Amino acid sequence: MAAVTKSITPPKIRHTECFIDGKWLPAASGKTFPTINPATEEVIAEVAEGDAEDINLAVEAARRAFDSGPWSRMDARDRGRLLNRLADLIEEEIDELAALESLDNGKPIRDARTADLPLVIDCLRYYAGYADKIHGATIPVRGNYFTYTRREPVGVAGQIIPWNFPMLMVAWKWGPALAAGCTVVMKPAEQTPLTCLRMAALAQEAGFPDGVINVVPGFGPTAGAALVKHPQVDKIAFTGEHRTAQIIMREAADTLKRLTFELGGKSPNVILADADLDRAAEGAHFGLFFNQGQCCCAGSRVFVDERVHDEFVEKLKNLAQQRKLGHPLDPETEQGPQVDQAQFEKIMSYIQKGNEEGAKCVVGGKRFGDRGYYVEPTIFDEVSDSMSIAQDEIFGPVMSVLKFRDWDELIERANKTFYGLAAAVWTRDVAKAHDFAKRVRAGTIWVNCYDVFDAAAPFGGFKMSGQGRELGEEGLRAYTESKTVTINLDT
Ligand code: ADP
How many other C-beta atoms are found inside a 10 Å radius of the C-beta of residue 458? Predict the structure, then answer.
């Protein structure tokens, strides 16, 4: 773990207020909350702390824009053009946006610049292309009737996102919603509101009419809950913890909102003895440590065939030792700090539990430096299925290595979690790969790769990892309602 330190000029903060009906407004209460730089623990800016009153204003604006504003009459192709224009503006500002994301979240600027931002732009363009390709079907019914279906926008979408990929989560939510013709009220995560607000400003510059996109920063139990309960909101799209989704589902019951959830995971990453072990080690390293381990699909349970176990763990250890930790805005940094103090403490407590429960810490296990929420890349070997580090989502740079011998038993163990977001297998045996893909209950299976995302490929969870899918055509359909129209053709 090498330290990288350089002095870096931070990006400009341009927006800190709520964006409602095309205007920048302080919170109705006048309250603000600080957003913190996780690399230095210093306040970056004070941001408007939205609550029920601000959410109500935003929902009313979104409702007007959906029901009677120019958006409701706009041709689908023009909606697509606006999304493309937004993608272009983001591309023009890519370096500044990457720096802002890195500052607020703590992720290395090179990840923001080469992973997050290109995926954001691609997602918006992908859905821009879909706007004028949403159509129903003609249905041959009994009798002299002409029956067809229309795919209509679901209405006002409330969107609640987490802090681990702030801009990408905006793109995953706005892209399909706006292509489908919905209007949106978004509540970004309280840890990382800045890039979402900048994207709202760019959307306005792109020409989205007032009220189509609204952003209300604030906290979950206040602003988030008000959005979930609001009777004029038709759908909630949420990404975050399964416990929060359970609260949202209960709160949304009164108004029977449409719900889509993308939640956590404890994804198995399985290394067979016949795999290319160098590539597999790199894949396992990347699959867990990318984004400081703060990925819902992180490959946090690494199952290794006992025949190659020792050799493989040695490779994992070497890679972890070479990882460069440092200031997120330094282009050489590979790992930045965790997003905040709470996450840092949670991760450190899991490291302690791992040690107490008898796992063997082969590398890392400590705080890195004395400033900022840095955690050393940590690998636990000799982990058993029942240990808390093998069961719970840690959401940090902590890898658990588990040994296996028998294939059927491995599949059973891989499935032994209430999560089902992703899974990967490394092998040259094509039959084994397909068997794994069929039998592991997860929404995404990667073979000889990890974290390969594409706007066209649906993503979401089995079991308690989610409900519905984002991305691809399925992601778009989640923002539509089907309407059946029947016309009597008797003359
Ligand atoms: P994380 O651990 O990633 O912060 P959360 O599920 O707590 O996961 O947060 C994800 C998003 O959900 C954030 O924007 C947060 O403010 C919001 N949130 C948290 N609690 C609630 C709630 N009770 N109702 C609505 N949104 C919430």
Answer: 17
